[in-house]
Amino acid sequence: MCELLALQFNRPVYPDFSFREFRQRGVHHPHGWGLAWFEHPGRCSLHKEAMSAHESPLAASLLDHPPGPSCTFLGHVRYQTKGNRSFLDAHPFVQRFHHRDIALAHNGTLEGLPPTRRTPRGTTDSEHLLCLLLDRLEDQRADFEENAAVKSILLEINKHGTMSLIFTDGVTLYAYRDKKGKRPLYRTLRQPPFRTSRLKGDGFTLDLAKIKSPDTVGHLFASKPLTDEAWDEIPPGELGQYTIHFLRPGTASQEPFP
User: Fold this and answer.
1) Which DSSP category does 118 fall into?
2) Residue 206 three-state SS
3) Is the Cβ–Cβ distance between 133 and 176 less than 8 Å?
4) Distance between CA atoms of residues 2 and 178, nearest Å
5) CA atoms within 13 A on the CB side of 10
6) Over the stretch 190-224, which tens digit does the pLDDT of each residue have?
7) What is the pLDDT of residues 79-89, one digit of tens each?
8) Catalytic residue at 2?
9) pLDDT, greater one: 31 or 256
10) For the chain, first and last CA: distance in Å?
11) CB–CB of 253/244 below 8 Å?
12) Of 34, 184, 206, 257, which is most buried by a Cβ count within 10 Å?
């Protein structure tokens, strides 16, 4: 089973605290890792490798020199069930839609997906899923932000197997939990008043009040809770939509749905 990570904040942040814990999960998911971020809406930057994040010098370097800052990050550690162990088959995957980059990371296994107009660069069912989702949105002339259209497509694709996934264009982020509940997905809301947070793995602590602006608020998502904060398990079949509304350069506000 792979694991997912996402951060979506109303102000640009760095991911090093969350990534410190997430990187350790490469011990049990050794076939690849990746981290995507959006320095500008719709323009994705990406680090990924076909090796364990736990053993990767690049992943280790991100703890001292993290990417960003960005309002949105998307991460993945891979346990290979489909495709090859290669750079092209490491998550997240990125495809263009309406002149924007869409990044997606998936946990699960899908079989018998229909052909797509978009051409996957790798060989995974996960990248095939992204291509199929965007093709179907085009077929329906639906915008990326249309929750009902996105959910309908995902429920249909979910018939082909198991899938929990997170995908985003850097402004709107979707988090979907497998409708059979086969792949867990958790979320927590990080907001003032901030306190000291402790990582689940090595017990590393950070006083968030010392590094967060008092008006910072955001959601974190993971396949398993990362910290001792209160994490809620997303119910099977739920599609959460989280949209950042940019007010002026360097600032944003966030509106969660639901």
Assistant:
1) S
2) strand
3) no
4) 13
5) 18
6) 999 999 999 999 899 999 999 998 999 999 999 99
7) 888 778 999 99
8) yes
9) 31
10) 27
11) yes
12) 34
Q: Which residues contact 160 (CB under 8 A, 6 or more apart)?
A: 110, 111, 112, 113
Amino acid at 109: T
What H or E segment, with its residue span, contains residue 21? helix 16-24
The CATH code of the domain at 3-257 is 3.60.20.10
Q: Are 129 and 115 in contact (CB under 8 A)?
A: no
**Which candidate, 32, 157, 131, 23, places its Cα nearest to that of 84?**
32
d(CA 242, CA 146): 12
pLDDT score for 82: 75
The strand pair at 100-107 and 186-190 is best described as unpaired
Yes or no: say if 83 and 24 are a contact pair by the CB < 8 Å rule. no
Taking the C-alpha atoms of residue 234 and residue 185, their distance in angstroms, rounded to an integer, is: 6
Contact predicate 97/137, CB 8 Å: yes
Provide the token pair at 180: 């059979």
Calculate the alpha carbon distances from 64 to 35, 53, 77, 187 in Å. 15, 15, 20, 25
Q: Reduce the DSSP state of residue 151 to 3 states and report it.
A: helix
235-251 residue pLDDT tens: 999 999 999 865 444 44
Give 87's DSSP letter: G
What residues does each domain of the chain span? 3-257
Judge whether 169 and 104 are in contact, CB under 8 Å: no
Residue 76 parent element (H or E): strand 70-77
